[in-house]
Amino acid sequence: MVSVTTRLVCPVCGRPPDVAGPTGYKCELGHNWPRDNGEVAPERVQAEALRAAAARRRETTEAETPGFSTWAQAAATLGPVTWHWERWLAPGFLHILAARTGLGKSTLALRVAACYLMGWPWPDGRRFEGEPGAVLWLESEAAHALNVDRATRWGLPLAAIRTCLPDPLEDFSLLNRKHREAAEEAARDPQVKLIVLDSLSGARASADENDSRALASTKWLAELARNTSKPLLVLHHLRKRSLLDGNEEVNLERLRGSSAILQTARLVWALDTPDPAHPSRLRLQVLKSNLSRFPAPLGMGIEDDGRVTFGEAPEPPTKENASERAASFVRRVLANGPVKASEVVAAAEREGIPERTLRRVKDTLCVESRRAFNEWWWRLDGEDERPGQDCQNSE
What we know:
The protein is α/β, with parallel strands linked by helices.
């Protein structure tokens, strides 16, 4: 029997090996380490090593293998929470970017990737402080041609945007074990600085997103981010709007699928159009953050040539009740002086303001009614009387 020594413990997480190969070992979390001095062990020794590792897991009462671990051990492995993009993007955590189809999720994700690829400033204008490297892009919606075209027009280095599969046009699937293993291997490369999955729905194409088993997929993604200490940005769609949703603003309830999808994501971004009158003015905001206070929302625009611009976030229009709307109308119509009452009433009717509401607001605003030249005139209180008017104080 071959005894278990310290070299048969993972140097990263302290777990025994699950797999022993001719040149090294692999633990259940996917960490690899070589044999001492590159030894090539015979098959008998490999089998004995695996049996010893299994016995080690069972015999948790032995003094050298306590049946518990501590947060101190976790802290020593993980380290403190840090930021690549302050309050927006943190290494080692799962992030979700949600928006309706066609609004610009992939464009925004590539713009964030450009920070890692080219050292571009972050969308809020802050300087990128890290060292540029590669990006692992897990495409699952067959948008390879669009991605390549956009990256080429932006001048991004295509050789630094990697896929984990041998065929660059193959879609990534979370339901394929070999795809997951390939992603784990590719993500461990120190040159990879960011992981993007576009999208969660596409990567689970044959599965029901309303099934609570979707948690298994997002849990694996969260573990991938944690085990590699890389930020992982997952693009996700919204469910169809209902009559109760009201407008284009996005909240956590609008995300498609089971609520379990959000459990392992530590930050959730949303891209929406809060002002229906200006649908091209997008707003990027954080809807969920377990790591810090929410950052201020950002405005975003996509130009005709594909360039992405950022600025002040648009706001939803102020909601006026019927009286406020009528009051705004009266002030606007009478701003330049007295107007015939009949014309005011007719204009209000064209804008859907009932005459009853109009006259109630007229009294509230102290609008004066004067009769001149056989016509009733309305004017805002305080205006000078016109020469020649035969004014009366009631209509």
